[in-house]
Amino acid sequence: MREAVIIEAVRTPVGRKNGMLSAMRAEDLAALPLQELIKRTGISPALVEDVIYGCVSQVGEQAFDIARQAALIADFPVEVPGTTIDRQCGSSQQAVHFASQAIISGDMDVVIAGGVEHMTRVPMGSNMKGVTVNENLAAKYEMINQGISAERIADKWGFSRQQLDEFSLASHEKAIAAMQSGYFTVETMALEVSHSDGSQMLFSQDEGPREQTSLDKLKELKAAFQEGGKITAGNSSQISDGAAAILLMSRAKADELGLKPRFRVIARTVVGSDPTLMLTGPIPATEKVLRTARLSISDIDVFEVNEAFASVPLAWLQETGADPDRLNPNGGAIALGHPLGASGARLMTTMLYELERTGGRYGLQTMCEGHGMANATIIERLP
After folding, report:
1. For the chain, how long is the longest CA-to-CA vector?
2. What predicted TM-score, i.e. pTM, was given to this entire model?
3. 195: pLDDT confidence band, cut at 50, 70 and 90?
4. In this structure, which of 14, 131, 269, 382 has its CB flanked by the most CB atoms within 10 Å?
């Protein structure tokens, strides 16, 4: 049976809105991890049979198939195609699924999956161009802002503002500890970035983690979506810029090229969930992917559950019974940021390096997505 294996993964540092990456065009940002994958592995880019990128706001610099543009900017041969997909926040995780499925089916042997989102230069929702929710859809479902969905999840599972803020503070503390320990060094490529005055600066660390934050500072923040609510900017994911890419191959092709497979993708799933609560999909997605892999929750060594809002992973923890110490061990999107289309590949990249660092065997990644969906993926570290 054919296997889809992961050879290499890399990401850019995640930039804050209007931060270090603000002067760089989205297409150029998307090309950087493609170039880095080739540099790290030494393979010919001509071997790549497709570049599959996730991107949510496909307008402006992110329009016109940014995956294809990125491949051309990265000096891939014109024969290498590219496609851009939108599974909302799970777009680049879905890209990994499509890549592994193409390989397992026998259609392809070498695929790059990744994603990009430049939320500074292409603001979230800009692709809607002022269009309101379709009347026929609104007649069937209560279509609300994700922040309100996060409020309702907090209420349904009984989470207090204190619990949400404590989770958020822990995300920052874990991310800062990981940065100080150098855990992100290998997975992150350093960038030379230009400023408006023409000066150059090396950008090598994520901008999001806040060393000076505290529970007292988080408590001072006002509710962002609902009067008297619990969801604030401090316990929500950050608006960010970033890109990430993962090189997948068939095991046979990796052996032929003399490349060491580091992981294999053993299970993939995607589910639909309540489009009003919207963010609870990771719970059934986790159950389904574990069944597919014939594993239990206790078999998993590292969980990466996207921290869209603090209430999302907290509800996931409560429903799955997972070990909280294995969840987002190096922080999540509340601290590191959430460049929408890139986050799936960013989480996967961080998870595989953490498994290698700790010697863990299995990693499970899952992400909530707009309109009520979720992807889940299980990878296995290879000896």
Report:
1. 60
2. 0.97
3. confident
4. 14
